[in-house]
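Backbone geometry tokens:
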Amino acid sequence: MQRIKKVAAASAAVMLLGGLAACRGTESEGTTEGGIKTDFGVTSEPCPDAVNPDNGCIYLGILSDLTVGPFSPLAPAIVEAQKAFWKRVNQQGGIAGYDVDVSTYIRDNKYDAQTTVEVYQEIKPNILALAQTLGSDTTAAILDDLKASNIVAAPAAWSSAYAFEDIILESGANYCVETMNAIDFAKGAKPEISSIMAVHYPGDYGDDAAGGAQYAAEKLGLSFTSVITGTGVENQAGAVSQILTERPDLLIITTGPREMAAIVGGVYAQAQTTGYTPMVIGTSPTWHRDLLGSPVAQALQLAYFQSGPWGPWDSDTPGHRAMREALGEPDTITDGFTAGWVWSYPIKAALEKAAENGDLTRAGVFAAAKSLTSVDYEGMLPSGAGNFAAGPSGQVKATIISRPDPESSTGVTPVTDLMVGPTAQGFDLTEPCYEMLH
């Protein structure tokens, strides 16, 4: 109920701010360039610092957690990867006579729904689509306005709710099936596992993973407990206490990296006296390589596994190789780079399809996105990924499991290939998984 109230209030603010924007007289260009219809966020003038000065410009917005939120350790890398992705597109000629700009309209959403509403409305009149909207609850806060305005968006999140939203172009397996695969992996590695605890943020991110964990536990005949925790390292004592009291065999943690480390560190600090050493699997955004230099590095190397929707930075696919070439050697390599790169492919596919249709208006891009039956992820996702025309039945279910590895670029090395476990294989998505959690 808290999530519904929060999102409803934020959505109301979107509509209010949207009305104010209209009062300021924001109008679409209503022009046609080279036989292609355009409206918002497309100009005949070149992009700032254009790669192709004779091209026009397509402006895409980015809303990310750049400073104070729990994913600020990852978000700057996501943004830099998206800049590099579109620079590569521009170096290859752009799209139908246009370069793509993702730098002009970058805004910090601070992983806060109300802030997301405000910065979204600030850039809305000037963009064709969103190259990134980071966070599940934050994206939910602007979802109604995205749909009303035909603004296609690539989420920096994996909520299963996106399967039911044509305006959202998600990539990779959602948190729900990712967690199902993680539990199948854990049960295969340690058949003696009989109890699972999902420790997670409230809201679509944490509840979605917990919903998948609960479903898997029920299918496998395991006991299940759901524990909600907040943001901030200082706020994890309650979760640690509950873990030590109930002593589950497997922890599924769905938080930010700092919070995950505080939870694992708190539990394993008691291991010598309690003898309790659970297996731990973190959902995609819980990892950052800097944790290997933290006081809890030893506990993480002993207990932690990382689930994810695709291979990490060092993986050998054409897309990974292109990403590494485009980004060079960043000072700190994280899989925020990998995520930002992958999330860009479906927006590119939608823009190319819209241009082929002669319609780079917002409505034209939306229609093109809905018609996509596949997206070329250059091997970073399985063949057939990006079937947005199929709705929920087109969802990717394959995920990968990794372990901490100080020798790898991002601090993790895969221990599986992309795989679909039997629980996810037999699962049909009929509603967002957070609605299944009870």
